[in-house]
């Protein structure tokens, strides 16, 4: 084996394209909901790799699945199929509204496939003029040019134009706003059942039901982007179950592989039929390593024990955050579902969510932000309750520091 050379955070800036600004520390090891950096300092992980590490770090079932598959077969391409891909698809079909599955490697690719399929389906059944896609302001659907254009955050498309045409953005949780843009030219409406990147904003049940009805009235497909809300994150395998509203297409990624890159687009037999041989594809999609790991994750996640555990931890996390909000006055609202929660900063800290993230890291706990005003939490679905408590204690410490500094400066 080659000797591994020592690298530092400073080296990052010398060799990487500057599109990220990672934390000052470099984690090197993780186990469950704890992570250690190069200096062997320990952190409680309440970030979960942005809602990816559904089972925490190095879960034995995932390690076992990856190791076993790594000694059998790594890659074939879609010129051949493979056993893990078929098994994973069978399990996803059995567990959801879907009859058919398309595999890819990320959330953006799952959405890209969803949007292309929606257009193709409309073109097949109604003609090419039915091609408009409606999404919602503040939505996030990925970073490819198509998905980022469908997304509702203009700052992410700035300087990348011209963007694809036929896209409209309505207001989230506002049916009248959707009514204004939906028409018989609409091929699909895409929404996150709860906006993640947009600030942890759950859809109201009336809104989701209304979107479904409007789609049906206009022969438009309903796409749920469950890249962040899926795989047990809300205490349901997929969040649509909580609302009792079924989509025509669903995108899944993030937690699906628990840390191994994999994405999936789920749909019905009727809609799937428009992706005939040759219409779409991916070299790595359905890769045996990815599917073997995802199969292990799905087996662990889709159990009553794990899913009810998410609801119990939701109560613990919510209560902890509400206590911190009450004590420090740093947060005006705590919201979310399952283990995808947000704490929106109070007025004096407007625009400064990141200050809390940095202070939390100093105190030994990893959290996320969602936009400028929301501190986001997406811990492992199986996080030990003691780790969640310790993480909350450390977060409280960080919050107290930020608040103390602000009042010292005032
Ligand atoms: C993260 C995310 C995506 C993009 O997934 P990638 O794997 O980064 O391409 C798409 N939609 C939602 C809702 C997400 O949270």
Can you give a write-up of this model?
With 410 residues, this protein is of the alpha/beta class. The protein folds into 2 domains: 9-59 and 304-409, Aspartate Aminotransferase, domain 1 (Alpha-Beta Complex); 73-301, Type I PLP-dependent aspartate aminotransferase-like (Major domain) (Aspartate Aminotransferase, domain 2, 3-Layer(aba) Sandwich). It is built from 14 helices and 17 strands. The strands form 4 sheets. Strands 4-12-11-10-7-5-6 form a 7-stranded mixed β-sheet, with helices on both faces. Strands 1-2-3-15 form a 4-stranded mixed β-sheet. Helix 9 (240-243) links the parallel strand 10 (221-225) and strand 11 (249-252). The radius of gyration is 21 Å and the shape is globular. The structure holds pyridoxal-5'-phosphate (PLP). The site of pyridoxal-5'-phosphate (PLP) has 15 residues, from helix 5.
Could you give the topology of this structure?
Layout: H1 9-15, E1 27-31, E2 34-37, E3 42-45, H2 48-51, H3 60-70, H4 83-95, E4 100-104, H5 107-125, E5 132-136, H6 145-150, E6 167-170, H7 175-181, E7 186-191, E8 194-195, E9 201-202, H8 205-217, E10 221-225, H9 240-243, E11 249-252, E12 263-267, H10 269-272, H11 288-301, H12 304-328, E13 331-337, E14 340-345, H13 353-362, E15 365-366, E16 368-370, E17 374-377, H14 385-409
Parallel strand pairs: 3-15, 5-6, 5-7, 7-10, 10-11
Antiparallel strand pairs: 1-2, 2-3, 4-12, 8-9, 11-12, 13-14, 14-17, 16-17
Helix pairs in contact: 3-11, 4-11, 12-14, 13-14
This protein binds pyridoxal-5'-phosphate.
């Amino acid at each position: 084996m080659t000797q591994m050379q020592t690298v530092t955070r400073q080296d990052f800036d010398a060799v990487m394209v500057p599109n990220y600004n990672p934390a000052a520390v470099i984690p090197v090891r993780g186990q469950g909901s704890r992570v250690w950096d190069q200096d062997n300092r320990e952190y409680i992980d309440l970030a979960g790799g942005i809602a990816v590490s559904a089972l925490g770090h190095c879960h034995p079932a995932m390690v076992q699945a990856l190791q076993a598959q790594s000694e059998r077969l790594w890659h074939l391409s879609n010129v051949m199929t493979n056993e893990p891909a078929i098994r994973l698809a069978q399990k996803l079909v059995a567990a959801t509204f879907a009859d058919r599955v398309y595999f890819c490697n990320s959330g953006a690719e799952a959405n890209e496939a969803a949007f292309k399929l929606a257009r193709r389906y409309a073109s097949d059944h109604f003609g090419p003029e039915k091609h408009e896609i409606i999404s919602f302001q503040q939505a996030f659907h990925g970073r490819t040019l198509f998905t980022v254009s469908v997304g509702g955050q203009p700052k992410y498309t700035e300087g990348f134009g011209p963007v694809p045409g036929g896209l409209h953005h309505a207001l989230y949780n506002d049916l009248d706003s959707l009514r204004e843009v939906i028409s018989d030219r609409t091929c699909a409406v895409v929404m996150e059942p709860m906006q993640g990147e947009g600030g942890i904003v759950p859809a109201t049940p009336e809104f989701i039901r209304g979107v479904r009805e409007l789609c049906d009235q206009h022969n438009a497909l309903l796409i749920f982007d469950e890249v962040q809300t899926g795989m047990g994150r809300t205490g349901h395998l997929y969040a649509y179950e909580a609302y009792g509203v079924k989509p025509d297409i669903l995108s899944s990624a993030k937690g699906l592989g628990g840390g191994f890159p994999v994405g999936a687009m789920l749909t019905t037999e009727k809609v799937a039929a428009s992706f005939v041989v040759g219409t779409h594809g991916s070299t790595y999609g359905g890769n045996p390593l990815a599917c073997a790991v995802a199969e292990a994750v799905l087996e662990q996640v889709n159990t009553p024990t794990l899913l009810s555990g998410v609801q119990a931890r939701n109560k613990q996390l919510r209560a902890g955050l509400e206590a911190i909000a009450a004590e420090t006055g740093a947060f005006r609202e705590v919201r979310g579902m399952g283990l995808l929660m947000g704490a929106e900063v109070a007025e004096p800290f407007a625009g400064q969510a990141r200050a809390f993230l940095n202070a939390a890291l100093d105190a030994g706990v990893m959290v996320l932000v969602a936009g400028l005003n929301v501190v986001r939490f997406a811990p492992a679905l199986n996080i030990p309750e003691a780790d969640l408590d310790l993480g909350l204690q450390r977060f409280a410490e960080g919050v107290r520091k930020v608040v103390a500094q602000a009042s010292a400066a005032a």
